[in-house]
């Protein structure tokens, strides 16, 4: 089995393909099943919901930030897969004292593609991972072709009370850049800046994207923003699928295709 370096710079080596994997990341749980490792996944978080039929009966080890160590111990994993941003340093410290841990943190599309094949190599599903990477790269190429010359400014909201957005140092911003998106907060010192409604939309042509996760924005929140900021335009406020803009792994191919479909509304 190859030695793989994760996002922390830690080298992870397994003597044989893992047979008892616990995933602490929803997008990674989905990816492991897509890579053919479903039978080896023995535990997930309460936020892991895909593939629905397969994960419904799996044991839960807490949330992405509140691991229940006793439940993890009972599952006797031979690999735990996490994410530097979604999980916590305290969780990683407790896990690494007992079990192998692989942690990702893709900030760019290229890093996410590399992480997909690194994970595949680690779990003994390298061929499947490269096949999924090929699908993602093909969808990315189609999006880039369709988006050539496009430029549209945006603010991408992920939370309400307080209103929070993403900066340029995020995987979300990297995905949107593939479609010509220019993040108004790209240079902000915080990865997830806090804003007021009055600060949204630097010019009448700016778009405001309201994500479906982690906060589930609905049409009533569009109306709320329009009422709070008269400079915003209703045709520039979009409800957007947060999973397809933020999940790395096998979901990337679908994410690129989704952004391709949105191009007419975003570049108009």
Written account of the structure:
With 268 residues, this protein is α/β, with parallel strands linked by helices. The protein folds into 2 domains: 3-105, Nitrogenase molybdenum iron protein domain (Rossmann fold, 3-Layer(aba) Sandwich); 150-267, Rossmann fold. Helices cover 38% and strands 17% of the residues. The protein has helices spanning 26-34, 52-55, 69-75, 89-96, 109-122, 126-147, 171-177, 219-228, 242-246, 252-267; strands at 3-5, 11-13, 21-23, 41-43, 79-83, 101-104, 152-159, 163-165, 181-183, 194-195, 207-211, 237-240. Strands 7, 8, 9, 10, 11 and 12 form a 6-stranded mixed β-sheet that branches. It has a 4-stranded parallel β-sheet with strand order 4-3-5-6, with helices on both faces. Helix 5 (109-122) packs antiparallel against helix 6 (126-147) and helix 6 packs parallel to helix 10. The radius of gyration is 19 Å and the shape is globular. The protein starts with a strand and ends with a helix. The relative contact order is 0.13.
Short description, anyone?
The chain has 268 residues and is α/β, with parallel strands linked by helices. Helix 5 runs antiparallel to helix 6 and helix 6 packs parallel to helix 10. The model has no long low-confidence stretch (mean pLDDT 95).
């Amino acid at each position: 089995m190859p030695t793989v370096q994760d996002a922390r710079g830690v080298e992870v080596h397994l003597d044989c393909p893992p047979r008892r994997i616990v995933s602490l990341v929803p997008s990674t749980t989905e990816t492991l099943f897509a890579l053919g490792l479903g039978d080896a996944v023995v535990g997930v978080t309460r936020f892991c919901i895909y593939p629905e039929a397969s994960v419904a009966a799996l044991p839960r080890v807490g949330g992405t930030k509140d691991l229940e160590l006793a439940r993890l111990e009972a599952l006797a994993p031979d690999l735990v897969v996490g994410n530097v941003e979604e999980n916590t340093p305290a969780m990683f410290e407790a896990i690494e004292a007992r079990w192998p841990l692989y942690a990702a943190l893709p900030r760019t599309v290229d890093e996410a593609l590399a992480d997909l094949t690194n994970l595949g190599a680690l779990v003994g599903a390298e061929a499947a991972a490269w096949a999924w990477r090929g699908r993602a790269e093909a969808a990315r190429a189609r999006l880039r072709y369709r988006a050539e010359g496009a430029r549209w400014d945006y603010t991408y909201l992920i939370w309400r009370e307080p209103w929070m957005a993403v900066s340029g140092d995020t995987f979300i911003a990297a995905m949107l850049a593939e479609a010509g998106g220019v993040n108004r907060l790209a240079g902000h010192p915080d990865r997830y800046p806090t804003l007021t409604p009055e600060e949204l939309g630097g010019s009448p042509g700016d778009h405001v994207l309201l994500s479906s996760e982690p906060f589930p924005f609905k049409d009533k929140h569009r109306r709320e923003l329009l009422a709070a900021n008269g400079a915003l335009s209703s045709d520039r406020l979009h409800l957007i699928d947060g999973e397809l803009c933020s999940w790395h792994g096998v979901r990337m191919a679908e994410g690129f295709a989704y952004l391709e479909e949105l191009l007419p509304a975003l570049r108009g």
